[in-house]
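Q: Predict the bound structure with S-adenosyl-L-homocysteine.
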Amino acid sequence: MRSNTETYLHKGMRKKMVDGIREKGITDESVLEAISQVPRHYFLDSAFEKHAYEERAFLIGEDQTISHPYTVAYQTQLLQIKPFDKVLEVGTGSAYQACVLAELKAKVFTIERQKKLFDANKSFEFLQNYPTIRRFYGDGFEGLPTYAPFDKIIITAAAPFIPEKLIKQLKSGGIMVIPVNEGDAQRMMRITKRADGTFDEEKFDEFSFVPMLIGKKD
Ligand code: SAH
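A: Predicted complex:
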């Protein structure tokens, strides 16, 4: 069960969480503001409620996790979201990252490969606050060709490689932020697509994500 009440205690813990993210090096105030607007405890089982604002990942079912708050902030900052950007997210999970993107006024198209996690969000009332989020059950390796091209693409699972099909669904000048396997961890990468279809690659810090897996799961 997810909790759906907010107290001043939650607000206080969230403010501290945002201060922590800022101290760790996130400088984009619009990203910090978006994170301070989303009650992270709504996205977790109420058993974790007291810990929801700690700098850690949590299980959200089906062996999947909601990312660390710092990781969400880091990926979001690299994406350089502008209002009305069309953003594809691979790995909806709890939908927390999707809500942070929607707070930045992005139009979010988010894909989840696990039916149980996809279905769990159907009854998640808080998502009604974000009519600009569209959720899809499918394989993120395929992207969403019908809705392409996208201004931005964010992968929130450990990618074994940079999926060619997703690069194709990026607008010219568009940005993809993707953690790519490198040994036991993932290197955060930012891919910027050039007009001729080739791309620039920038490498950032290492993170640890659950794997991006091929195909859907019932
Ligand atoms: N963004 C999420 C965190 C997700 S954890 C949040 O804010 O809570 C990674 C998620 O990616 C998991 O739910 C996992 O099932 C999903 N996933 C892994 N491979 C995928 C794929 N190929 N397509 C879509 N989703 C995928």
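A: Residues 8-207 form a domain with the Rossmann fold fold (CATH 3.40.50.150).
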